[in-house]
């Protein structure tokens, strides 16, 4: 587990790096801690989860399956405030090391992680997130 990530995040700008570090360590529980208790999430496989516990379970399944060897390379990030207490974060990634069902390498794909973040006390958490493959 990565102990140097502060959650809730002091700033929405902390999310992209923290997500990438947690993904690299395959720490689904840590990634789920980035979300509010009642958050919703759409994962790379198209599966949806409601609530932090289901999000952790979904991410753990994805990280143990097709994405067990996957690496993220960060691309362009965009922060769009929507009032004082809400920010939309759009982080582009390139994923490599994805495994097909037959065990072969699936190559690289572009993906985007879009998060709606809200103030949570003195910090920020994700209330809704979608990590989807770009077409």
Describe it for me?
The chain is of the alpha+beta class and 135 residues long. 21% of the residues lie in helices and 41% in strands. It has 3 helices and 6 strands, in the order ααββαββββ. It has a 6-stranded mixed sheet with strand order 2-1-6-5-4-3. This is SgcJ/EcaC family oxidoreductase. It comes from Thioclava litoralis.
Provide a compact summary of the structure.
By secondary structure, the chain is α+β, with helices and mostly antiparallel strands. The chain is built from three helices and six strands. It has one domain (12-133): Roll (Nuclear Transport Factor 2, Chain: A).
What brief labels describe this structure?
single chain, 135 residues, alpha+beta, Nuclear Transport Factor 2, Chain: A, six-stranded mixed β-sheet, 41% strand
